[in-house]
Write a structure and sequence with these properties.
The chain is of the alpha+beta class. It contains 1 helix and 3 strands; from the N terminus they run ββαβ. It binds zinc ion (2 copies).
């Protein structure tokens, strides 16, 4: 799986171990702040639900 390193909305760094990274089923990636405060939990690209991205370490 490709791990996108930054929020597509605000550009904040979202490293693989970040617990603030949110993704949709097409792997559009956003930070938790944008997801909750600006996007309402919905991906603006494809309309999918944004869920917390699993970290590599669990
Ligand atoms: Zn963001
Ligand atoms: Zn999407």
């Amino acid at each position: 799986m490709e791990m996108r390193p930054a929020c597509e909305r605000c550009g904040v760094d979202l490293p693989a171990a970040s617990r603030d990274a949110m993704v949709c089923s097409f792997e559009c990636t956003f930070c938790r702040g944008c997801t909750e405060q600006r996007l309402g939990g919905v991906c603006p690209n494809c309309g999918g639900e944004l869920v917390r991205r699993p970290t590599r370490t669990g």
